[in-house]
Design a protein that fits this description.
elongated; alpha/beta; disordered N terminus; 5-stranded mixed barrel; single chain; 25 helices
Length: 847
């Protein structure tokens, strides 16, 4: 900026273009850059720049708006000269120099810009320029302005040069005002102040105020620096104290470490575990909190401290109480309940023997956290030669690993929960379905980021007991991936001879799992690896009969669903016929999960009617079920209504229960080929070929003409979209083949199952109970069963055994004699009553 003075004042008005300014005031004698971009401003600049004197009138807008209005401009402004002009993308860059103050007498708009009639303003000089007060005021402003310039960072020489170049008091105040950090209103006030003395006082006030602001900033800065210095000093001292504590072995975080040390010392740890804990604690005490591994070691030691190394739940073993609990929680499942009570009885005798041995050996029995029938204690610890008490688990604590196998919804998991309730142990369930990482079982090594123990150790930490009931649910759903095989990691967990020293990768030390009662559940034994299956004792859960389902629904499901849906027993009654309808035509399962859902749906329908005021009470019978729930969802097979040639009725097993199926065989012109359809598996295809070969080799005795084998034989099992496999359909396929080739009808009221050999022997199969129940549901009571499955009939309810007639067979000839019309077996020979001459020895035993 430079000073421009003008001592003469023009009397005649000037007609000048107006440059409206926002937040900028141009003082006389000051040169400053201005950026203009609004159209009226650009036109005014162009008009001024093209004029000979290049004069323009700058006026401040009263408000900072984009729009230009002459009525919103201050009338006092500055007559300025445009020294330089440079156009750019953002607008026009000007270098403008203020000349004199001016008053706009009139504003008018012309050619898209504002023109003003301007009269130069005459300043009011001091009355006595040589008066001491005015001289002192002028000198004080110069000193304070120099001080402000130096404290603002300007070079001292430059400040002195600028101040010496301006001697006139009025021009000096304008020059200093141009440097001050003022608002646009304050600048306009200084511009409108024509009295030089008054302007000196105002400028001096603003300069002193800014000097005061700088003083305050320096004080704040010094305080902050002092505070930072104190903190750095404190940090330095703390580091020194930490180094001294490390040298003394006291370490950092004394209170927390002392608390952790107390927890670890209170544990009764095995010798090798104690050695590892002490080593890790020493490492933690020697390293600082900022060390990367500090938090890893601390978390590890806290995990060790929270594990139940010597904490056991008080175990109540009372067989009568256990039997009562099992009966309260479950209906049926007598074999399973017997096996559970046998396990508890063995456990009770073992604990009694341990208590007697401890009492005779030590003179007293140490508390083991177990009660036998409510009045016995078992040994918990033995005194070592070094005088320390060390927890030992006698071998008698090791029990079998139970594997509950059965279809979904039959009560496998809930039986395990009942075991925990009956014995007073804590209960924990781990779902293994879909696990494909071995680290889920064994944990991650501590070298990994975010390492943690496996689910076994985490479960023990959660229950806080060393002897809980652990349910490993869906053990047959384990997966295998590149991350390892979780089933292999379970081998050590589920081996009673090894799990007393189970080593989790995270812990790195053995943990005794021998007192945990592991109960595994599965739907399919075939999906469990053989080494893992060998370590467990299998307990079979079979599906419920319709009568058992009805009893379970009446005793458990209906009351629970009424409570869950806000109904009282006096508001709704579900009759036996309605339950039978739900079981037979709305559900298809071995368990009762879907049945409970349907009962809940039924209850909600009734609850809606009651809430709407349509009814106050409702009794639901069979005829109301379709009205409330819609059409039936299940369409099971029913027995055929007549005998047919080439059609035999078999029985099959599914995870949701048994059912019947029809095997259809037809012959047609061809070359003796065998056609198989219906999505049959390899085993069923082999059974069909064995039946075909048997029929060809015994064609004469079966009444089959030799030319019949020169035709193609088509074997089909309906429900072609469902894959089927297994050997138990062998006798059914053989019966249908012989019926089709001989032209003799097979009985429609007989269902059969059994595997056949090429010589005609009938071998035993599995799933007998479910298959027979499926046949009974379909309306068939005559059953053909392999002789080897006779003992399986004991699994049937007495009511079902009274309904059925079972034909036990060892040879295919016996099957054909019972299933084909007008056929009989006499002295091992199959005889057809209408063709006695065709009697032939089929190789079966004498009847």
């Amino acid at each position: 900026m430079t000073e421009t003075t003008s001592k003469t004042v023009r009397k005649e008005p000037l007609h000048l273009p107006v440059l409206p300014l926002r937040d900028v005031v141009v003082f006389p004698g000051v040169t400053m850059p201005i950026l203009a971009g609004r159209p009226p401003s650009l036109r005014a600049i162009e008009a001024s720049y093209n004029a000979p004197d290049k004069l323009i009138f700058t006026a401040l807008q009263r408000s900072n708006t984009e729009e230009i209005d002459s009525s919103a401009l201050f009338t006092t402004g500055t007559i300025a000269r445009i020294d330089q002009q440079q156009r750019g993308l953002a607008g026009t860059q000007l270098l403008i120099t203020g000349l004199r103050r001016g008053h706009a007498v009139r504003f008018e708009e012309s050619d898209g810009m504002i023109m003003a009639t301007v009269v130069e303003a005459e300043e009011l000089p001091p009355q006595s320029p040589d008066e001491a007060a005015f001289v002192a005021l002028h000198r004080e402003l110069r000193q304070r302005a120099a001080e402000l310039g130096e404290r603002s960072g300007l070079p001292k020489d430059a400040v002195e040069q600028v101040l010496k170049s301006v001697t006139e008091p009025g021009r000096f105040t304008d020059l200093v005002a141009g440097y001050l950090d003022l608002s646009s209103q304050q600048r306009q006030q200084l511009l409108e102040t024509l009295s030089v003395e008054e302007r000196l006082r105002l400028v001096l006030t603003h300069v002193q105020r800014q000097l005061n602001v700088l003083d305050a900033q320096e004080q704040i800065k010094s305080k902050v620096q002092a505070e930072i210095g104190d903190r750095q000093r404190e940090m330095f001292l703390r580091e020194q104290m930490k180094a001294i504590q490390d040298e003394l072995g006291e370490g950092e975080g004394g209170a927390e470490l002392d608390e952790l040390r107390a927890k670890l010392d209170a544990l009764e740890l095995p010798e090798d575990v104690r050695k590892e804990v002490n080593r890790e604690f020493g490492r933690l005490a020697r390293m600082g909190r900022e060390a990367m591994e500090s938090q890893v070691i601390r978390t590890y030691l806290e995990t060790i401290a929270e594990l139940p190394w010597n904490t056991r739940t008080e175990e109540q073993i009372d067989l009568k109480h256990a039997a009562k609990v099992l009966e309260e929680d479950h209906y049926g499942l007598e074999d399973v309940k017997d096996r559970v009570l046998e396990f508890l009885a063995v456990r009770q005798l073992q604990l009694q023997r341990d208590a007697e041995q401890a009492a005779s050996g030590n003179g007293k029995a140490e508390g083991s956290g177990a009660k036998v029938g409510g009045n016995g204690d078992a040994a918990k610890s033995s005194t070592e030669s070094d005088g320390k008490d060390k927890t030992t688990a006698p071998d008698t604590r090791r029990g079998p690993i139970l594997l509950f196998v059965g279809p979904p919804g039959v009560g496998k998991t809930s039986i395990a929960r009942s075991i925990a309730r009956a014995t007073g142990r804590k209960y924990h369930r781990i779902s293994l379905g879909g696990i494909r990482d071995e680290a889920d079982i064994r944990g991650h090594r501590r070298t990994y980021v975010a390492a943690m123990p496996g689910r076994i150790i985490q479960g023990l930490k959660q229950v806080g007991s060393k002897n809980p009931v652990f349910v490993l649910d869906e053990v047959d759903k384990l997966s295998v991936s590149f991350q390892g095989n979780p089933a292999s990691a379970l081998l050590e967990v589920l081996d009673p001879a090894q799990n007393d020293s189970f080593t989790d990768h995270y812990l790195g030390v053995p943990f005794d799992l021998s007192e945990v009662l592991f109960v595994a559940t599965a739907n399919f034994v075939q999906n469990i690896p053989a080494p893992l299956l060998d370590r467990m004792e299998m307990v079979d859960f079979s599906g419920y009969t319709e009568q058992e389902k009805k009893a379970i629904a009446r005793q458990y499901l209906v009351p629970r669903q009424l409570t869950d849906n806000g109904l009282a027993t006096e508001q709704i009654e579900i009759g036996d016929s309605a339950l039978e309808e739900l079981i037979s035509r709305y559900t298809r399962e071995a368990g009762v999960r879907q049945l409970e859902r349907e009962i809940g749906s039924l209850a909600r329908k009734v609850a809606r009617r009651i809430a709407a005021g349509e009814v106050e009470r409702m009794t639901v019978e069979r005829e109301h079920v379709a009205e409330l729930l819609g059409r039936p969802k299940v369409h099971p097979e029913h027995a055929a209504d007549r005998d047919q040639v080439g059609v035999a009725t078999g029985m099959f097993y599914t995870p949701v229960g048994g059912d019947i199926m029809f095997v259809e065989v037809t012959k047609m012109r061809g070359k003796g080929e065998l056609i198989l359809t219906g999505q049959l598996g390899d085993v069923m295809k082999e059974s069909a070929r064995a039946a075909w070969s048997y029929a060809r080799s015994h064609a004469e005795g079966l009444g089959i003409d030799r030319p019949g084998f020169e035709q193609d034989l088509h074997i089909h099992v309906p429900a072609g979209a469902i894959p089927k496999d297994g050997p138990s359909a062998g006798v059914t396929i053989a019966t249908a083949v012989v019926s089709a080739l001989s032209g003799r009808a097979a009985r429609h009221d007989v269902a059969m199952t059994g595997e056949i050999t090429l010589s005609g022997r009938v071998l035993p199969i599995g799933g007998v109970k479910e298959k027979i129940l499926g046949a009974v549901r379909a309306g068939i009571t005559d059953i053909v069963l392999p002789k080897g499955n006779e003992s399986d009939l004991e699994d049937l309810h007495e009511e079902v055994r009274k309904k059925i007639h079972v034909e036990l067979v060892e040879h295919l000839g016996e099957v054909l004699a019972f299933t084909l019309r007008d056929a009989a077996l006499e002295n091992g020979r199959l005889v057809f009553r209408d063709e006695a001459s065709h009697a032939i020895d089929l190789g079966g035993p004498p009847h």
